[in-house]
Amino acid sequence: LKFRETPAIDDDLAQDMGEENLEAYKAKIGENIEHRRKHEAEDQEKKNLLEALVKANPFDVAPSMVEEQLDRMVEGAARQLQMYTGQSMDFSDEEMQQLREDQREQAEFQVRSGLLLLEVAKKAEVQVGFDEVQAEINKMAVQAGDNADRVRAHYGNPQEMMRLQYRLTEDRTVTFLREKSSLGPKHECSGSEQA
Questions:
Q1: What is residue 37's predicted lDDT score, i.e. its pLDDT?
Q2: 66 in Cβ contact with 104 (< 8 Å)
Q3: Cα–Cα distance between 107 and 52 in angstroms, integer?
Q4: Can you tell me whether residue 64 is helix, strand or coil?
């Protein structure tokens, strides 16, 4: 017979998890939870900000841009599935079509918000240089520990480096918009201030 034996929550468990003692392990768990909460709050704030930006600046987007974004989203989902499970995404044509339709509204939102952020970045002269991209790659490599070489190899691809530069520019532009929007809820953008 097999049965699950739950380990005792003590210093031995903490040491097995790479910490000095149980108190240090609890502190690390607390930090991880706080970090996750902060990250989720920032993501929600970014989403709210982008939704407001898109709502305040309506415009038509080319269907081809939405299709390209759908391609990127499907490819990204396939890469993540492969990375985390080792399995490939194997859908029938009908399932793939349904997946694309389910994601179409999100893809259109991403295209609109991305174009608006690029325009804001241009007007606000937000730029991310090569050195900053390299610093971010080094930071991710340090965080990856044993997989540092894999991270550096991944971003050795010029296309992946360009994606990272775009993400960093987007993050900096969102920070810029957050600072501008913190002037207060009564602050209205005039037509010339809109992206």
A1: 94
A2: yes
A3: 17
A4: helix
